[in-house]
Structures are given as structure tokens and as C-alpha cells.
Amino acid sequence: MREVAPGDLIFSFAGTFIRAIGIATSHAEEAPKPDEFGSAGMYWEKVGWRVGVAFTILRSPVRPSEYMEVLSPLLPKLYAPLRPDGVGMQGIYLTYLPNNLAAAIVDLLGAEAHALVRGYRVSESIPSISSIVQLRWEEHQMAEVRRDQKIPETEREAVVMARRGQGLFKQRVMALERACRVTGVTNGEHLRASHCKPWRDATNEERLDGENGLLLTPTMDHLFDRGFIGFEGNGELLISPVAHIESLARMGISPNKCQNVGNFSNGQKRYLEYHRDSILLRSKFMP
Q1: Where are the beta strands (DSSP E) in 107-236?
Q2: The dihedral formed by the CA atoms of 154, 160, 161 and 163, expressed in degrees to the nearest 10
Q3: Which of 8, 54, 78, 173 could disulfide-pair with 24, CB 3.0 to 4.6 Å?
Q4: What pLDDT shows up at residue 126?
């Protein structure tokens, strides 16, 4: 899920048929399991990864098992979505398809699929659906914090303020940090205290832990929070392979220049490891 990028082609395979083609409209973002799933997917975790996809149902679905003489030689050795006989792999929910396999499937689906693939464009004017879901989830979490009478009122307010990188959390981060790690901006009015382990994933103690934070300008906070940039424990700036390079350059980050942002405390290194493992967007399939 974390390797999906806007514009990626997605085939929907259900009931032995490829019934729809979708185009990813977002990167993966954390979200609660949809309520409409009901009892389906009971083994799923409460919070998982969600990708926005614009699907089009095909008028002429295709059953891959009828064309395995064409498709079977193109199946990848690892994480193939189908068995050589065309039966779907139940343990594979979403997987990468080699370009030649994807092209062969589009050819089998015919003119309708070709038109969809050529005609789709991801509109930058439409907000990411998954971003909206994530925001609603965080609002739900903040409402739960506000209602929790077991937490002292002052702590409740501090935890809620921490979500916005302000209040007690920012004070604790500023005791460790002096400037934006990337841009060098020092004026506190232009800086946010950004969580390394996101607020939505953290315990209340971690949400207020100064070592779980970095001072970043709003632009860098956005890139860090969404997983487009990260940091190694030695201070090396990491750039996600799915980040938009031209946009990064306009924001002042040079993809071709190695940048070190300085030393981190041991606590910060621990939280940054979580960020690299769980938030930084990665794709080994991107060039």
C-alpha cells in the first residue's frame, strides 16, 4: 500500500473476473477500517493504510483463467496475484504487476481499457480523499481525548494542542531544537513542532515527549508528516522516491545534493526510526 503513487493503474479482481480499472489518486495514508465493511475483514487491524482510487466498472469484464497461456509466462516469481491456472492468490491483497503483464491485461480488456488508461488524469484541484479520512480520524481521536475524564483537564488540552505542534509539546521540543532542521529558520512564529511518531499513532505520553519532535517550517512539516521526507539517525535527509522532484526543488530541497541536518538525541533517533519504518513513503519499483 505504501508503494502506491498517484497515477498508478490498479486492476480490480473479484469473483474470478477483472471487473474494474482504477487510477490511484493519492499516496497511502493511515485511516480507520471503513464502517461499511461491517463484519468483513474482521482480522484487519483497527487502523491501516488507505489509498484513494478512482474506479471505472468495465462493461466487458475478463476472466484471467481463460487466458493463462498468455498471462502465465508473465507472472512474477514473487507475490504474483494469480496462480498459473488463473486462480487468485487469496493471501495477496494488493501487489505490483510487471509492465508487460499489465499491458497484456489491458490488451485482453480491449478498447475500453485502452481508452481509460490513456484518458485518466489525476486532478490536482481535488483534495486527497485519504487526507480527508485521516483528518476525520484525528478529529475523532481528539474528541475521545477531550471526553476522557481520567486525564486531568490541563493534560487533555496539552495533548490536543500537541496535534497542531503547539503548546506544551512545542515548548519541550524548543528546549532541544533551535531552528528548522532543513531550512535553518529560527523565528518560532514560523516553526511547528512536528511529531516524528505521528500524533495519531502515539500514546498521550509520546504525544507530549519533546524528543518525539523536530522544529520545521510549515512546508517541511507537511513533507515530513506525509512521508515525502525523513531523516537517518546520523542526520542525513531522506527523500521519498515517490516525492514530486520539481516541487521539492521549488521548496528549497535539492534531490541531487546530500544534506545533513545535524545530530539527534538518542530519543529522537528512536522516534525517527519509527518514522522511517512506518511513515516514509517507499517504492522499490520507482526509477
Answers
A1: 192-195, 213-216, 229-231
A2: 150
A3: 8
A4: 41
Nearest to 78 by CA among 101, 96, 103: 96
115: pLDDT strictly greater than 80:
no
What is the DSSP track for 64-103? GGGGHHHHGGGS-SSS-SB-TTS-B-TT-SS----HHHHH
Tell me, rounded to whole angstroms, the distance of Cα 287 from its chain centroid: 19
Q: Which residues have CB under 8 Å from 47's CB, separation 6+?
A: 30, 31, 32, 33, 137, 200, 201
* Block residue for cell numbers 513533507: 223
> What's the whole-number average pLDDT of the chain?
84
Helical axes 111-119 vs 99-109, angle rounded to 10°: 120
**pTM score of the predicted model:** 0.59
Rounded Cα–Cα distance for residues 116 and 23 (Å)? 9
The residue with greater pLDDT, 242 or 23, is 23
Cα three-residue angle 115-119-120, rounded to 5 degrees: 120
Q: Residue type at 229?
A: I
Residues in a beta bridge with 194: 214
Question: What is the spatial distance between Cα 195 and Cα 222, in angstroms, rounded to a whole number?
Answer: 11
d(C-alpha 11, C-alpha 168), whole Å: 47
